[in-house]
Design brief:
Chain A contains 10 helices and 14 strands. With 381 residues, chain A is of the alpha/beta class. Chain A has 2 domains: 16-187 and 296-377, 3-Layer(aba) Sandwich (Rossmann fold); 190-291, Rna Polymerase Sigma Factor, Chain: A, CATH 1.10.1740.110. In chain A, α3 packs antiparallel against α7 (281-293). The relative contact order of chain A is 0.13.
Chain lengths: 381, 381
């Protein structure tokens, strides 16, 4: 962060890259080995001498390493800028905040749009299928590289929340606290169903060409836009859609034609189109697949899965989230409590649906600020 | 029905066709005029001398005129066979049951896959946009042709329920009773959103070719399958999907590949593929559009819209239906009650979601059988 001094609002930030040394193998949950693992990441604030003030932020499906501040020549800040910075929820005066692009993503970390070092061509579908656990294992390598033995906290919403939970299970000794937001410990049949339809939309687009479109003139824009539109419906609540759009028309009257006549249609098309410009269709396949594979429980009781957890928890859910319901969060809380884990649960009242975790900043700030601060006080490394 | 005698289980039935005389104009709600209106319909049971035992069944999005009995050489009966026949809910020993394919459909009634009599080519997207009211107006012409002045009942689920409600509003003097099931009086933003994504999937399929695929070698199968899959998710409840499929795999282990690995994925692909074989992609556009346009209320109070209604009502909803919720049915019931209409409301407890109206036969049978029988007793034409 060349221009940011302590206490100053985050301004220009830069994405950095970490390459796993060639000597180190990166094994995936599938058994496959990934060559040349590269991780894109950003950091905000400063790591203290004891290296015990680091907080890892895990992003959701459409996010990336750019969580806060501004990239040079860009007008839009990072995706969680309202939450990260001096005096904010993740106070960069106190904490060293890290966010990395997930494995399988398309913003700098190894993924299907990366160049395969062996073939020197884009991976496409030859990129191995990755899991949430693989994403977390990659983050662990980054944290090791940064010289951090124990993270003060791991936090994330939605797919980011899955990573946070996976951290608590995979590396119980390496985190002091965990903040899973609007998430679940496993994907349900309905969640798999929505993802599968999105994937079918992409793979059914003739421009997708089996995933080998990187050198082609065509891009599976239509399919990816449809996938994104499906996602968007699940991110909003019925009520928020009704309140925001209802049956409002773009023009004065019905046109009796197949254009986007209702405001909601225009909104969805806009969201679909803008997503296509910034996201890789193959990454969408890989990341939804990783979420569908996510099942912390498997055949065990959740309580048993959480047996080694020593970290504190702040679990946040949103009342109108019908994708990752508060009921699922309560199951997590219950299983943690049964293990004697120090867990705080809060269901934030909101009409925004799943999207609330990217909108209810004051409520989240209040909860997270206090939680991190009290965690730091209790700190015994 | 060549082989069916009174009291005998419905066996071989035939689809019949009604052509509106060329001298009669068929005006649509949009102001457009449709030339050569043709209606495909089936009838079960016999019309009595007083012509006061006729019941009209209105089908849902994917239905057609073939509601009961078997077509010659076909093994599968009509879509509501369990409900129509001697001794069944719509007892063909007592009632003359009519079901016609909706306007804009693809099974014999005028729609985008019909031949435009003027150009002698398939209409495709030159077919005018139709509304639920237009569908009902077409059915009214058929009922007139059959010499029926007053229907004993109009019944339908989902889009069929919208038609039933529209009948009560458009032709209050021509129906004695109305049975709207699992439906709404207007499409919400979320319902429009799901439909729009389905339409985008179809129209984004390069094989769709602006709707002019009838003579082409390619058919927008991928797009239509995706649209159907989206629909299917909304027809099932989260719980029924979880109970039926959960996270069950088709093979023993995860394959780390983009095939249909989970049972739910296989099921959705199957439903998508089988729908493509029997349904016209353009019809899907037209029928979803008609539903999205459906808004009985417009800027009036629902009570005011229902002011001329004299018919009895049986309103049925299903507890786990999140597409057309019981809350919406209760609004209908309330507005009817405020007009002093004789209305019975029943919310059937079910985990099946919206699909329940095609599955909960014993419960529906009990309610409808009694309702029709008591309606017939009260009959004063």
């Amino acid at each position: 962060m060349p221009e940011n001094k302590k206490g100053q609002e985050l301004r220009i930030v830069e994405t950095k890259y970490f390459n796993l040394p060639e000597s180190e193998k990166f094994c995936l949950e599938s058994g496959a080995i990934l060559n040349g693992l590269k991780i894109a990441y950003e950091t905000y604030g400063e790591l203290n001498g004891e290296k015990n003030n680091a907080v890892l932020i895990c992003h959701a499906l459409s996010g990336d390493a750019h969580a806060a501040g501004y990239h040079e020549h860009e007008k839009k800040p990072g995706w969680w800028h309202e939450m990260i910075g001096p005096g904010k929820a993740f106070d960069t005066n106190k904490y060293f905040v890290i966010c990395s692009n997930v494995l399988g993503g398309c913003k700098g970390t190894s993924g299907p749009n990366s160049i395969n070092p062996v073939t020197e061509r884009h991976y496409g579908l030859s990129f191995p299928i990755v899991s949430i656990k693989d994403m977390v294992d990659a983050q662990k390598r980054l944290i090791d590289f940064l010289g951090i033995k124990k993270l003060l906290s791991v936090c994330g919403g939605s797919m980011g929340g899955m990573q946070a939970l996976q951290w608590a299970v995979s590396y119980p000794k390496n985190i002091v606290s965990c903040i899973p937001i609007a998430t679940s410990y496993k994907h349900s049949a309905q969640q798999i169903a929505f993802d599968e339809v999105g994937r079918q939309a992409i793979m059914g687009d003739s421009a997708w060409q089996g995933g080998n479109y990187y050198q082609a003139k065509q891009y599976p824009s239509a399919g990816l836009a449809v996938a994104r539109m499906i996602g968007h419906i699940t991110y909003m609540s019925d009520k928020s859609m009704e309140d925001k759009f209802g049956r409002a028309l773009k023009k004065k009257e019905l046109g009796y034609e197949f254009t986007a006549e209702f405001e909601i249609e225009g909104y969805l098309r806009y969201r679909g189109d803008s997503f296509v410009k910034r996201f890789d269709a193959n990454s969408y396949l890989y990341l939804t697949k990783a979420m569908d594979y996510f099942d912390l429980q498997k055949n065990e009781k959740l309580q048993a899965v959480f047996r080694d957890i020593k970290s504190r928890f702040l679990v946040i859910a949103f009342s109108s989230d019908w994708l990752y319901t508060s009921a699922k969060s309560k199951e997590i809380v219950k299983a943690l409590k049964m293990n004697g884990v120090d867990v705080t649960y809060c269901e934030i009242s909101s009409d925004y649906g799943h999207d609330a975790f990217l909108l209810k900043f004051p409520e989240e700030t209040k909860l997270i600020k206090y939680f991190l601060s009290s965690t730091q006080k209790k700190l015994k490394f």
